[in-house]
Amino acid sequence: TALTEALENDLLHKSDLGKINAYTPNLSAAWMFQKAMSVRMGQKVNPKFVNRLLAVNFDEMNDMGRSTMMPFLQDVVRIDGLVGSLARSFVA
Known about the structure:
Structural class: mainly alpha
Distance between the termini: 38 Å
Helix content: 55-70%
Number of strands: 0
Order of helices and strands: HHHHHH
């Protein structure tokens, strides 16, 4: 990664570090996940909706295996795990 290269090459000055692109590709996936788990203002849903959706989602991620569950638990949102678990949750 860029940070590793900066450390290995002693490029730690402000101007060096300023060249690192702080792009976070997981941000859009995290936003999509939050959007799928939210209820709109004024929307009437079963009070247990979010808890049930989370429970189903965790069950589906567990069924998809460790390679899906572990990144999620470590706050590393991966689009493949996210899309797969949400798609399975909507079917369940």
